[in-house]
Amino acid sequence: MTVAAVPSDPATASPQAPVIPRQRSAPAAELHQPQPWWRDAVIYQVYVRSFLDSTGDGIGDLAGVRAGLPYLRRLGVDGLWLSPFYPSPQHDHGYDVADYCDVDPVYGDLDEFDRLVRDAHRLGLKVVVDIVPNHCSSAHPWFREALAAAPGSPARARFHFADGRGEHGELPPNNWRAMFGGPAWTRTTGPDGTPGQWYLHMFTPEQPDLNWRNPETGRAFERILSFWLERGVDGFRIDVAAGLFKHPDLPDSPDPYADERTRDSVNPLAWNQPEVHEVWRSWRRLCDEAAARDGRERLLVGEVSVPTAAEHAAYVRPDELHQAFFFDLLAAPWEAAAFRGVIEEALRDIAGTGSTVTWVLNNHDQVRTVTRYASPSGDADPSGAGTGGPRARAAALLMLALPGAAYVYQGEELGLAEVLDLPDEVLTDPVFHRTGSRLRVRDGCRVPLPWSGHVSPFGFTTGGDARPWLPQPDWFAAHTTERALADVGSFWHLYRDALQLRRSLPHLGEGPLRWLDSPPDVLAFVRGDGLVCAVNFGDGPVPAPVAGPPLLSSGPCADGTLPAGTAAWWSCDPSGVLD
Ligand code: NOJ
Q1: Which terminus of the chain, N or C, has less C-beta within 10 A?
Q2: Residue 265: what pLDDT?
Q3: Closest CA to 394 of 515, 544, 556
């Protein structure tokens, strides 16, 4: 619910209306030069397959994304990140790339991509594409050539091929396990059916890991980056950015199940090798050169999962990646102390790197916040009406009040909960299939978006028999964009209002954060010199830290109180803060 001083409703305004220039707060010494756009940008993650289908095949596509651009513009984000749309057999929905310089026909073609970039830029939206350098698809020409070539050949040297152990090479070269379950090695079979060498894949067997110790790999990716830079992209989201290099000797791991157990890249022999930093330096040079040519700053944002804050910070040194996702916020349980701990850690970690924290609450790999924050008593009804919905709204206001950049995953702005009851036979996630149907983790957040109407396909796809590639539940009817835009109490309006305030208030975006004293279940802080954000993680109401009505709140706030599971923003003179 929004109160006092909420900006007018752009849902009724033309999507062509001029973007309100962002008033960034910057240290005095930097005031003379504009801050790069990415430092406090809010980027919308488009999972292309599930955004909007323009062809009636039940699968989202680039033309659908292009049709949705005015919607994103209305929402008020600064740009979009497109999940992989390259030719791919889709064993991991595009994170198995068969051709890095084309578009899968399911999603469109290069001309459609160019139109998308052109229209996005016209609307003032940046376009970030996903790049997958750790592994390619087993259908990539390089891998096909490697399979056909002899052991020790240059074609095999682009990957990690090795002889097996055991008397007949029947055992994998080491004991590593793949992230998605099973051994990290698969044995090849020759044309005559005889077993041959093994190859390494840290994800599925259809995603062979590339050998980054072979200079040919680095050169190929520089060409790929240049290809997309020339097509006008504003940046790259880098998949598995702590991957690429493996320990040169590929030794056994003392804890081979650690990655599989934690679903995180923690095997110190397979991830986070020092050599990877040189790759990010060379990619940064490429981006800086492109920016020098046309004055448009490009972004490298890495998916960096490493054990410590200090290691994370090393990826965003001034000559490496511009940013790296900070996943600890996403991983934090709904507790004030946990949230405060990860926020403090992030701000400490980033200080001195020249980067800004890149906050995330949701993405295509994680259970959605509405479901995650539901109280364990199981009150999360599928529409999000339990505690999970209000808490997800509060978390969004918290995230958007923090210094730095933020990513919003499609459907987050509609308050979608995880779809928990997809039947086994429709699940496509390799994690499900490779863990003996134990882990149902990634399909439920990828169900195609509901746009309009009362029954599936909710405007996601059109055409006689068109069915979304994953079935949509009936309760999506309450979460269509059509309904969200018409209801000023919706998640959508909360995000839109918060994004508009971020643009118009000089205290948000970059700049300092000062904690206020607050009860144990409450987090309260001041941004700049006049924006207070408070979140009540507890079960009962608490006094609001600021007198008077909030600028924006995630739920009803009356009589100077902040109810349970609610966040609010107040604009006030620092002397008005009840610290
Ligand atoms: C991280 C991506 O977010 C995930 O979806 C993918 O499966 C793995 N990397 C492997 O590419």
Answers
A1: C
A2: 83
A3: 556
Residue written as tokens 């709904």?
Answer: 334
Query: Which tokens sit at 45?
Result: 């993650």
**Which residues does residue 161 pair with via DSSP β-bridges, in sequence order?**
199
- How wide is the angle at C-alpha 561 spanned by C-alphas 558 and 564, nearest 5°? 105
Strands of 501-572 (E only): list them.
513-515, 522-527, 531-536, 542-543, 552-553, 561-562, 566-571
Model confidence over 321-352: pLDDT tens digits?
999 999 999 999 999 999 999 999 999 988 88
In the structure, what pLDDT confidence band is assigned to residue 30 with cuts at 50, 70 and 90?
very low
Catalytic residue among 114, 288, 289, 474: 289
State the closest ligand 1 atom to the C-alpha of 430, by its place in the atom list counted from 1: 7
> Does residue 409's CB lie within 6 angstroms of at least one atom of ligand 1?
no
Q: Which two tokens stand for residue 5?
A: 């001083």
Do 473 and 454 touch, CB atoms closer than 8 A?
Answer: no
Q: What are 225's two structure tokens? A: 């980056």
CA distance 243 to 94: 18
In short, whether 92's Cβ falls inside 6 Å of ligand 1 is yes
Report yes or no on whether pTM surpasses 0.85. yes
Report in angstroms the alpha-carbon separations of 410 from 445, 488, 492: 9, 19, 11
Q: Is the backbone of residue 238 left (phi > 0), alpha (psi -120 to 50) or beta?
A: beta
Pairing of strands 195-200, 161-162: antiparallel
